[in-house]
Prior knowledge:
Layout: H1 3-26, H2 31-36, H3 43-55, H4 62-70, H5 75-102, H6 109-116, H7 123-154, H8 159-207, H9 211-220, H10 234-241, H11 251-259, H12 266-297, H13 320-328, H14 331-369, H15 375-398, H16 402-428, H17 434-453, E1 457-458, E2 461-462, H18 470-487, H19 493-510
Amino acid sequence: MxxxxxxxxxxxxxxxxxxxxxxxxxxxxxxxxxMLGGRKLGPGVTALSAGASDMxxxxxxxxxxxxxxxxxxEVWIAIGLLAGAYLNYLIxxxxxxxxxxxAKDSITxxxxxxxxxxxxxxxxxxxxxxxxxxxxxxxxxxxxYAGGTLFQNAFGLNYEVGLFLTAGVVxxxxxxxxxxxxxxxxxxxxxxxxxxxxxxxxxAYMILGGSGPVMAEIQAMxxxxxxxxxxxxxxxxxxxxxxxxxxxxxPHIIVRxxxxxxxxxFKVARRIGMTWMTVALIGAMLTGIMGxxxxxxxxxxxxxxxxxxxxxxxxxxxxxxxxxxxxxxNPLIGGFLLxxxxxxxxxxxxxxxxxxxxxxxxxxxxxxxxxxxxxxxxVMVGRISVFIVALAAIGLSLNPSQNLLSQVGxxxxxxxxxxxxLIVFSLYWKRMTYAGALSGMVVGAGTVLFWIYAPITIxxxxxxxxxxxxxxxxxxxxxxxxxxSKLTQPPAASIQHDFxxxxxxxxxxxx
Length: 511
């Protein structure tokens, strides 16, 4: 490993640990501070924390790789994500911040579901907590695996060493610093990602000679790189756009909305978050396009042989950002750019670890075992839970299976269908019942699982190859909520009164 790269990584790791130490001394004395930052996040931290925990390594590897291969025919997923994130700020954010506060200061989503519907059976809490714990443990395992793979491929270290380095630093600042540490590190990591996704495509563009030579090479390619409709079908475009539907149900993203200090800050947060996301997505797309041109024109400097196949071409399109960062920059800046990938991976791992540990603490330990546990005890259990979930994730990632990775790839759809319609209905519809809520969650998750695993094919192709599973999942979940709520007795007067109280509080907060 180059000295400059090593210095960049060391500075990055020390910065993350320093933030964890600061947060440990600032906001971990009570359970609300440890798990939700005391609901005191500013708009900038809220916005970049939500964005960084959302995108993960996909932003710097998956999306550039897709555009490297297919060009702008992949633009629909970016449009869907932008639309979904924007609507999430408008539709979910203000109401969820107010409603979770009024509903007995709910700290987790299962906490909110139980309090919103006055569920004495605790079925809503239990089912939603199980969904969060299972899927996020798999998600975390995939993140740890990605970190180990990055160290192995980019830094030349042993996979297990990289795995433990990634997990160790994340666990350290998450375990001690809690939500505030996760949010501030996400903010810093989001800034690093932003700079990297601006710097790499612009530098490649300049080295390639500017718009004239770049456009000439693009037009000469067999693949129509600038045609968004190339190879597209109606259902294919719908499936890509539908990725945006997942935002309404992602616990690690919307928990940031619960933690902002005031709903008046959402306007600024939305502007910051959407600007960051738009520029970052454009940068990721252009990285893939510029990388594709570079690989055609710069045949004498295609980068490290480890990334090339026998024909001298890029073996894995998802490594194009790594290759460009090593070709175009000196080791010190190249190390910073590789740290951007690590930042993207770690920001998501830390968010998922904290959401999972919060659910284990509040929705299992406190709800079913120690209802009178003190704040100090809950914080301790939360830290132990972070460590346990991290160990489980490390265990899964030591011997990763294709089944594990494919399940994690479908978790976005699972969360979006199970929680998305439930959250939106619960924030807007007073007539919604407990039975409708439970039905919507079960039907949404069940539909996604059926769509993925059912032994049903059409002309030899699986259901998922025709339309992304989140589409039927969200539709059937919403229908289940509406139909079952209409067929069951209206909520008790006290529940409707609580809803009206939340509405009045929202109006007050908005003034």
